[in-house]
Amino acid sequence: MKEMMVGSAAPVGPVGRWGAAPPQALLERMKDYGQEGAFALWDELSPEDRDLLVRDIESLDLSRIDRIIRRSLGSQVLVNVVNLLSTGFLAPLVEPVPESSVSRVEDRSSEDKERWWKKGLRAISEGKLAIVLLAGGQGTRLGISDPKGCFNIGLPSGKSLFQLQAERILCIQKLAAQSNDTPSNILPIHWYIMTSPFTHDVTRKFFESRKYFGVEADQVTFFQQGTLPCVSDDGRFIMETPYRVAKAPDGNGGLYSALKSKKLLEDMSARGVKYVDCYGVDNALVRVADPTFLGYFIDKGVSSAAKVVRKAYPQENVGVFVQQGRGGPLSVVEYSEMDAAMTTEINQSTGRLRYCWSNVCLHMFALDFLNQVANSLEKDSVYHLAEKKIPSIHGCTMGLKLEQYIFDAFSYSPSMTLFEVSREEEFAPVKNASGAAYDTPDTAKLMLLRLHSRWVVAAGGFLTHSVPLYMTGVEVSPLSSYAGENLEAICRGRTFHAPSEISF
Length: 504
Known about the structure:
Helices cover 32% and strands 21% of the residues. The chain is of the alpha/beta class. The chain is globular and about 85 Å long.
């Protein structure tokens, strides 16, 4: 960022609370970190704006921010050097995920799935599972300014993503109660919802105005992820206005520091939680608090796990799981970090892509591991650098946002496994506005309607439709069925016209 120095001939502004110069102690601290440029326009500010600038800077944890900037910039330099020395982007550094680390759909028996389902329901009924929802994103790419979770993808019911997820929680609570010998003693699943400064108030009001979609208000905790200053290539703060440092949310991996700083890990422990289900808001088919996944996780005894789907095609814009060197931990490589050879490389024994396991932001953690990783990530303080257009006093300028990603935790995991799921049953992302080629509200809606239509037919129901069935279907309320179970009494011998909602 171009520095603006205060010249000796600058007009002296109004004195105000702070006098003609910035507070000396604060100015010296900013000089210690090379950030005194934030005061460059001090002489031109009104007393009120000077007060805003001082309060803005005083709100920053300068020593922590300086450590993050230095280590993140230094880490990026190291990565660039390694990439220059290597023949490919990351080829010498990573290996495909070993087959032993993946539970594949075709390898599971019906006995396995039933055992995991029952084990997961028991753990839920005992209050051992908490849910964390990553809901900090706005729906700007969807054409709305509201949080993504408020979005209605056009289902017959008109339900938002938030409502679909809340009702799935209610359904699982009911199933867990029915599976327990003492259903009256069932503890509700606590739902922790991470927002950002841009979505927090709107999200809370959305839930409050709709009476939490039937979930008890005291089983929901809203909390905000942190923000960090946006910086130039040399690590200097970018000023959004003469009296405010430009800031941005610290990525969905900001979850870990937020859980720690807001003492939510302690809150989970006090509630008896042992396992944490974590997912992103923009998946219309997400199985929140999935008992099968939880039962599998408990069975394996690992510290972390992730649901994965196979890449649909080599150029699909998804990150993939890899192993960090032979025998190393699992981690995620973003699609932008993969060269063409790595993207298209085929496993000769299977005929499938070598790097095929897509990260779809559906994770399970042991609470003990979350405590460990929150401390480790804070200690290491290495963030990803995302080059973006930043609003500044010079107009929109290119700068760096400092972000952690949810999958950064996996490198610290002493034991991790991947759990393959069917894309058609569990992954319908809502990322782009209608009219785009993929991941739109329309594509997500059709995936849900088609899945639920298969449930109805499997339960003995019939469908009529006035448009081709591949363009429509029926919607089964999450309050009636979580994953297609218990529909025979509702559907057998009955005919339903598509599109419509089935709710009993």
